[in-house]
Structures are given as structure tokens and as C-alpha cells.
Amino acid sequence: MTGLAVTTVSRALQGDEKIAQATRRRVRKIAEEIGYVPDRAAQRLRTGKTKVISLILDPHNEILGFGNSLITGVAHTLAGTGYHLNVTPQFLGGDPMEPVEYIVRNQLADGIIFSRTRPFDERVRFLRERSFPFTSHGRTEFGYQHAFVDYDNEKFAYESVLRLMQKGRRRICIILPPDHFTFYQHLNYGYMRAIRQEGLQSHIPEGISLDSGMPEVFEWARTIAETTDAPDGFICPGETSFLAIANGYRQAGKERGVDFDAVVKSSSQTLSQIDPHIDNIGEDIRQAGILLGTNLLKTMQQPDGPFEQTIQDPDISFPSLDSFQN
């Protein structure tokens, strides 16, 4: 249909700059008109590449819309690259190595993205030993380097304590993730640094974490709200824990802004629609997805480094206390 050789058409479809731009446009136009798409199975046999990126995603809901935002960001980066995004589930409580090993051993993807890292994450060790391209949402403590995108949870926790202190709160509670995750350490360090610096009373609940269900957090909050030394300030690294705590305190007859205050990490406008005056610190999950996709594409070109390592700064924009009181 184009009157060109097969190799020329192939190179034009791949965007080879050695092919004239007018020729590339003409080939793409005809391909679109006839609905041509490359045969992925044939491409894989010829190149050894799947043209697939696998995002391993667990169903935690500490931040509303986390999964959708991350997928949107990664997909945005991959648009026009020829790579297809495949989402692989990682169920809470399951073996985090299982989906990684399955993908690698069955050659189901050219690169992997995963989240919720541990200090010495076996997934990182497994993939680095095989020079398999990956990037993680979260850091580790390995001596060797790897690509990652992370959020400055230490700064989030530190600034949250200071904000609650400015509002006159003295008994500060933080809801932490399970202690085997790396970001548990970052949150706890920032929190305790501010608590000790300002001489405040700390409260870290036993048996409650960011992975606890909302009914469980609600019951805990309702019970502790009725005690004489109930926390009067909360740091919630996700909207769902705050909503459960606020409901529990409400059931105990306590009001936010009077009996307690909170600082919440959020990634959307959902919480501000529910409670417009809540103090929140933003985490841009969609941007994290964009960065993860970008970092992975670079790693796929250089599997042994150098690696892109990005730490997102918390978006802090508290209203002044004077305007809040007015």
C-alpha cells in the first residue's frame, strides 16, 4: 500500500529518525486507516521483548484513589512508547515475592514497578541479582543502588506534629503502617524527633495500623475518646484512618476543632469536600506514577545503572491560625 520495502515500513513505524519525517507520517497514517497493530507474539520471538510493563499493586486503601492515581501516572508516561501496562494484584498478607518471581520466570514483562518496600526487600535483591529492570515506590536500606520514587514521610510526620502543637495540642497520636515497611521508620523518626523536641506526649496505638479496617479503627477511636487522657491531636498518613477516627470521636461526643485536631496526608480533593477546614498535607500519587514510569524506562536502557532516585516533597499549605480562628 505504501510502495515501500517491509524493512522501511518497520523502521518508520518504530520512529527511526533515519527515515524521512514525511515518510514516517505517511506510513503511520496508512497503518491507522487499516487498523494495523504489531503482532506482539511475533515481536517477542524476534526481539525477546514483551513490550509490557507490570505494575504490582496491593489493595491497601490508606490513601483514597491511590491505585487509580498511580496507574494513571504510569500510563501517561508509557503513552506513545509502544509499551503496554499490565496491573498484577498483590493481596495483603500474601507473599510479595510470588508475583515478582512469576513475572520474571515466565518472561511476562520487560520491567516491573512495585510499592510498599521493606528495608531489605527480597524483591529488590531478586531483581538486582538478575539485572531485571524495575523501580519501586519506596526506598530500601541495601548498600547497592536501585531506582525508586519515594515520599518524604519523615518531613510529613515532623511538620504534622508542629502544626498540632501550634493549635495547642499536647497528646499527639500517629497511625503508623505495619513496622516491616520502610516508611514506618521514616514516619516514626520524624514523629518522635518533633515530639522530643517540643516536649509533647506521644501515643502510638497497639493493634491499630494503616492496614486496619475502618470499623476496627472506629471502635478503637470511640473507646479511647472516652478516656481521661485521650489524644487531642492525630497524624493520619491517609484519609481513611482519619475518617474512622473522626467518626469514633464524634460518637463519643467530641468535636474536631474543639476537643481534637488532625493533620491528614491526602492525594485528592475528596477530603476537603468532606471537611473543608481540615489540615492536610498533599502527596501527588499521579506524579509519583509519572516518575516511576520515567525512571523505569531509563533503567530498561541501563539495567545496571546509574539509577534515578526521586524523593517527593510534601505539599504543605496550612492556612494561618489567625484566619482559621476568624
From TrEMBL:
Residues 301-326 are annotated as: Disordered. Residues 1-47 form the HTH lacI-type domain. The keyword Lyase does not apply. SMART domains: HTH_LACI. The keyword Transcription applies. Coiled coil: none annotated. Keywords: DNA-binding, Transcription, Transcription regulation. This is LacI family transcriptional regulator. It comes from Pseudovibrio japonicus.
